[in-house]
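Hi everyone,

Forwarding the result from last night's run.
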Amino acid sequence: MAQPQGIHARRAALRLLDAVLRRGETLDQSLAGATKDVRRPEDKALARAIASEALRWLVDLDALIDSATKKNLPDDAKPRMVLRLMLAQWLRLETPPHAVIATGLPLLSGGPRRLAHGVFSTLSKQGVALPSAPTLPERVAQRWGERAPAIAAGLAEPPPLDLTLRDPAETAHWANRLGGDSPMPGHIRLPRGESIAALAGFGDGAWWVQDLAASLPARLLGAGDGRHALDLCAAPGGKTLQLAAAGWQVTSLDISKRRLDLLRDNLERTGLAASIVRADALRWEPKHRFDAILLDAPCTATGTCRRHPDVLHRIGARQIDEMAELQSALLARATEWLKPGGTLVYAVCSLESEEGEKQAAQVALTPLPIRNDELPDDIQPAPDGWLRTHPGQLREAGGMDGFFVARWRKQAEPTGTTAR
């Protein structure tokens, strides 16, 4: 019997959902395996879009499913998993109900198929709708506290496409040529769905893809004027490109060969230069100290929940504690490698205080407060000079990732000591 058109994409979406919710994998990690029998790139993209929307709205989708069953289905029951995907397609991707049924029910058989058909038909006849913003999982809402409602509002839609320019002086030119908006000099924002490689300027290396919030840490180091900067945990390289374009002599260190290969590709495309080092930052020893160090530390990445909604369901106290321990060790090393008078910027794309504010409070350097004029309009630093962004900020313009950023200066060493 012939399979309905589109069934492979739906089966792949089911595998993705299972990988995230049952095995704790990321969408990125599980994509290749989940889509192994999906040939067309557009079908692979569809599978990811279905799974992403199911994860983004999971709490609300489950509430709808529970409203149409006499007894709640187990969280990992296959009928619930399939219904999550079916409802996500109908309510978020605007797939007609008949098409949802035709491609969803073949994922089940027997009684589970009849159950899913009955639940979906009931909800579609009722004309149910999702709320204006996703409901966060309870443990996530508790962690994010009073910020939670604003963050949730920023998750309602996937993010736009953000580009950082190699030459900020050409902002007006590229905004006009690409038909985008500019939230600040050196940055262009386009509607999502654009083919990146087909955009003007890609082949010339005039820009690279980078969220607005992710572009802020490197900006805080200013012009390099030939001085030496260390981009610690650098790959895939957006911040290295920023530093090199700003005139720094950059050493880019990362442990991942695959991600460093991406950095090399980006350097070649943009015509920028950096010294690449593959090493474990906890074991590596530099030959000299640096005028500036940018530590964009490994983290739980909960601040990227707009584009990676799997983090809403994978990350808990254990992962946060593990990352916080690593971040403390990296900060201690970075502090040692900084020249007297040098600047350290610490950043994480995390919304967790354990990875942000609590890490910064342990740094024994002189705070160098972040200023309003270094940030986009309507984004302000905290009273203590740190920066905390989240997806609910600039929401009308497309939002931004959640980041914590702090900056310090190392005081000069006492007279008579010599910097190595």
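Residues 317-336 form the longest helix (20 residues).

Cheers,
N.
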